[in-house]
Amino acid sequence: MKGGTEARLLFQQLPSAEGPAVLVKLHNLYFSRIFKLIHSLVKQRESAEELASDIFVQLWQRREKLLEVSNPEVYLYVMARNKAFSFLKHQLHLTEPLDNIEDFRLEVARSPEELLISSEMLYRVNAAINQLPPKCKLIFMLVKEESFKYRDVAEILNISPKTVETQMGIALKKLSKAFTFSTT
Amino acid sequence: MDRIWELLAKKFSHEISDHEIKELEFLLKKHQEELQQGEILDAIFNLEIIMGDDPAMLERSEKRLLRQIGEVPANDLPANDDLAPADSRLKKHFRRYSKLYVAAILNLAVLTGLYLFASHNAAGNFVNKINTERGAKTTVHLPDGSVVILNSGSRLTYDKDFGIKNRRINLEGEAYFDVKKDPAMPMLVATSSVTVTVLGTTFNVKAYAEDSIVEASLFTGTIQLTTEKDPERVILLRPREKVTISQKQNNYTSTPKEPRNETVSLQHLTLNRIDSSFDETAWLKNKLVFRSTRFQDVANELQRKFNVYIYFNDTVFQDIRITGTFSNESIQEIIPALQQTIPFHYTSSGNKIYINQ
Questions:
Q1: ipTM associated with this complex
Q2: The CATH number of the domain where A113 resides is what?
Q3: For B131-162, what is each residue's pLDDT tens digit?
């Protein structure tokens, strides 16, 4: 896991004297991603921004208890999900949030390691990703971005691992269509 | 059929169980025709997500955060802490891309080793020449936006008109091309025995002077290919096809001027079942793949990759066919591995290896 170990280290250092600086570090590492998740759930930019900030305030408030957290990244995302859901409940329009989430843009880029992807193909891939249903796109993003395990994604989004599996299958199938098209 | 996608997605995200791998293999065998793009799908899956940070929002949130926890606002913090976000982002960047940096540094080392220069040729044209030494690989960005990855012991040349009046490029050796589309100006890749005409595609050309075969493999788009011997005949390649031209050499006695017998054959690319990758681009991942390849051609490949010299003291071995894959093995490991299937002996001194009976 790429980011997991750093997050764990930062979680452990949070109660120390350098706490505030550590908190800022965590904030800068995770704010944008947390914001993306919350934004797709609550659909309002300003609220999402505030809620995402609040996550880190909360984190600070419970800094003494964080040593027991086994997977800090999942923990952060679950906090974010709960925050978003309780906000929605408060707003009294929580039905089934995952079936009705805000669409967002997701862009991928190639590193020199991915030599098989031509520029034209990359363009098609990005177009295909952004045509995925928002729920499917969100799951795809979570699996790819932090290399979250399926069960982590299921926990974060409060869905069954089987749903993650199905949605990932759908995402891959659609992406492959984009690619097949480009070869003809 | 949807199950196959679920299983493939699981495989790419390293979620797949041993039991499911078996299921996937079975399904892949059944649906071979529809699913030949496994490697490219895998590559798509590995693309990096662009985070698209909003710096203004990040800063707003940081200030709000510090206010809430009773700390001074960010701009009053000591300079050191101000640098913290940039610092950690930088670290993350380095961690994420460390492999690439190593590659870039290696490339740089290669660049200093290879000579990239502009010289006047007889016609007074500037010629760009890019060489890769043995054991090295390099990525070349052409003036028209196309990208070429040049394998070991290869040479790419193009003149100053490239991308302006024409897109003609000469290749000796092996290279992978990602050609930018330009219908008005097709790219011409010329080797000593074949010329490939392209609009915009990804393909691999392998044409080492010392090898007994020349290969052109196409991944996407279309290319046209003509051979030096028979320029009238145009071969049109479709995705996932390759052309192999065997040159029957009289070992080292033949000179390029002597006519050689050529056999041209059209095949499908070889899909590796185990990791659903194409053998033709294995070199991009530093893998060596041999499928019933002449020992002499295997030796040529090893010479280029490991910067060694392999001499056959006995010609009986040269035409023996070898099948096998090497990924991280050193030359010291590969030669003994080959001995498992071929009864030869060898001696080595420095970077020279002598194959004996």
A1: 0.72
A2: 1.10.10.10
A3: 888 888 888 888 888 889 999 889 999 988 88
